[in-house]
């Protein structure tokens, strides 16, 4: 069976969805999620006070940070670990959707949490299903021992590999005595 070429579109979709999900989740933590009645200080008169999403669902910001970190994770790993990351993202999306749907009243804050959770779930499903076909970082991002060195590339103006090795050894490659 011939190997399929990497699918770039799912990677770009994921890289676009994850920051959008993070922004929506972070925003929903700052928006009001409805009011709670509290007694006015010094009286027994109840007043309605807006409650931010960070008090109703305190894990919204950590899930938003997970979505941001997942951008780097999706780009850095490949194969089974990338697909596992997709499953983790889809599972993490349950919390903001559950918190938004379970809110006392549908407000902009809870609706934004549901939207952010849906974006995160969609990104997770895309990664879980197509992560093995997405392109991965090439050898130029690998450690120098695993990739072609600059001197082997044959491009003019590039340093010889032994110069890099002498730098790694702590020697000055420009010193005429070495």
UniProtKB/TrEMBL annotation:
Pfam families: Trp_oprn_chp (PF09534)
Alphabetized UniProt keyword annotations: Membrane, Transmembrane, Transmembrane helix
Biased composition (Acidic residues): 169-178
Region Disordered: start-end pairs: 138-178
Record-linked InterPro entries: Trp_biosyn_TM_oprn/chp
Keyword Ubl conjugation in annotation: no
Transmembrane spans: 56-77, 84-101, 107-130
The keyword Membrane appears for this protein: yes
Name of this chain's protein: Trp biosynthesis-associated membrane protein
